[in-house]
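ZP: hey, is the magnesium ion complex queued? I don't see it on the tracker
AM: it wasn't, my bad. submitting now with these inputs:
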Amino acid sequence: MDFLQKIDFSNIPQHIAVIMDGNGRWAQQQGHERLYGHNYGVESVREVLKGAKELKVKYLTLYAFSTENWSRPKEEVDGLMDLMVRTIANEVDELNEKGIRLMTIGDTEGLPEGCRNELKNAIAKTAHNTETSLILALNYSARWEILNATKIIAEKVKNGEIDESSIDDSLFNKSLTTNGIPDPELLIRTSGEHRVSNFLLWQIAYSEFYFTDVLWPDFKKEDLFKAVLNYQSRERRFGLISDQISKDV
Ligand code: IPE
Ligand code: IPE
Ligand code: MG
């Protein structure tokens, strides 16, 4: 089915966030080690990035490593960090050719030094690109991010930089690692799990959720288009009733 043909280009989410899940199960189903699935997952990242660019999606956020993922077996964690370093180093030229800007969210200070350096380099080299921003959520925990923002704001109140009465949505947004990035209109999770796993808790207040049983290494451009098409069939009411929402806007 050609989903792209059916997409309404006047109603593309400007930000799509993805919980890339199912790499381990995908590998194990084929009798391989879990890391084999993570390696294959990189191909899906390329595909989805390509698809997002075709749709002119401005921001694509990928949940690549959660704070909780540190508790996995050491071999898997080391393999994932190594994969990250190699992939970023390999892809930076191509990101530039395609006009893609790399960004990160999460507590990146907690990543191994090699990984931090590779990221710093790629972020600087792609900073001028304006087509699509690829945002990697690394050592990410939404609760950490919310607590961190709270501490930043508390410190400013304590120093007299701001008054308590000026704490609002906008100030809170600015104190999150997603500062400057609009909230995702669409959140996709692969692999049949129906949970949020500590991802973007503040930012998904009004996101549309799309769950698919497809495992991440099998998730391709067409799957992204299918998700966007499904998103376009939703009525986003934001607390209003249906009659108040003009379909023409
Ligand atoms: C997602 O796949 C990738 C990461 C969390 C890094 P998983 O590794 O969680 O795969 P499953 O869920 O065990 O199949
Ligand atoms: C969420 O996937 C984290 C990433 C995709 C990086 P997990 O596989 O770690 O989530 P849980 O543990 O099943 O909730
Ligand atoms: Mg998983």
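AM: back. Residues 38 and 80 are 7 Å apart (CA to CA).
ZP: great, adding it to the tracker
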